[in-house]
C-alpha cells in the first residue's frame, strides 16, 4: 500500500513539475495590436535585416505586440502586399528601384509610405579623407578638384572608382570628364568590392590625398574619417547621358536621390492604429546605420544581435520614435 501511494505521489509530482516547466517556457502572450501578429519584411541585405530586427524588438518590448520577421525580397514584396497585405511593414523599401510595382500598390491604396527610412536621400557620391578638407577647405567643392594636384605638389591624384562591370563605373568616367579632371586624376579600377575597400584602406593608412566613389549605408564610411564632396545640383535631364558609355557631352551633376521608405500595408491603419505615430517617426540617421554596419562587421554579429546593441546603446535615437508627439 505504501508503495502504491508513493507511486501516485511520484506521478502527480511529475505532472505538477511538468506543468510548471511548460508555463515557464511558454511563448509570451501579447496584448497589443489587438492580438494581431505584425509581420516585418527582411529584404535580406545587411541594413534591411538590421532594421527588421530593430522594429521587431521595439514592437514587442514597447507596444506589447507579437512581431515576427519574415524573409522577402525587393522584387516580390510588392506582389505579396497586393495579394495578401503581407508583410505588414517593410522597413527599407527602395521605391525608385521598383517604381512600377510601388505605383500600382500605392494607387490601389494597398500600402502607404509612413516615413523615410534614412535621414538622407542622396546616398552615392565622391569622398575624400577628412584631412583633405582640413588642409584645403576649398576642395569640399568638387568643382575645385582640378586644382588638387597643384595644392599637394603631385603630378596626379588617385581616384578610386567602381569595378568595371558596375554601372557606377561608367557614371564616374563621365563625371570625371564633366569636371575636367581627366589629367588631374590617376583612375584606379578595382576588380572587386573587396579590392575597392582595400584600396580605400591604403589611402587612409598612408595619409594619402585621394578621391573615391562610395555609397551609403556602409560600414567603411564609419570606420574611417571621410568627407563627402559637394557635387552641385542634380540635373535630371543630363543624368541619363552620364550612364551611357558613349555620352558625348557629359554635364556636371550630383548623384540622384533615392526614395527609400518605411512602408506599411493599409490594414495597419485599422488593425494596429497605435503603431501609426511610431512608424511615421521611425527615420534612422544614415550615420547611425553606417555605425551599426561597422559594429556588425567588427563583431561578426547577426542582425538580431546588432538590433539588440542599437536598442541598448542608442536610446536617444529610437525612444523618440516611440514617444514622439506626431
From TrEMBL:
Gene3D superfamilies: Glycine betaine-binding periplasmic protein, domain 2. One of its GO terms (molecular function) is transmembrane transporter activity. Keywords: Signal. Residues 37-312 form the ABC-type glycine betaine transport system substrate-binding domain. Residues 1-17 form the signal peptide. One of its GO terms (cellular component) is ATP-binding cassette (ABC) transporter complex. It comes from the Bacteria. It holds the Pfam family OpuAC. This is Glycine betaine/proline transport system substrate-binding protein.
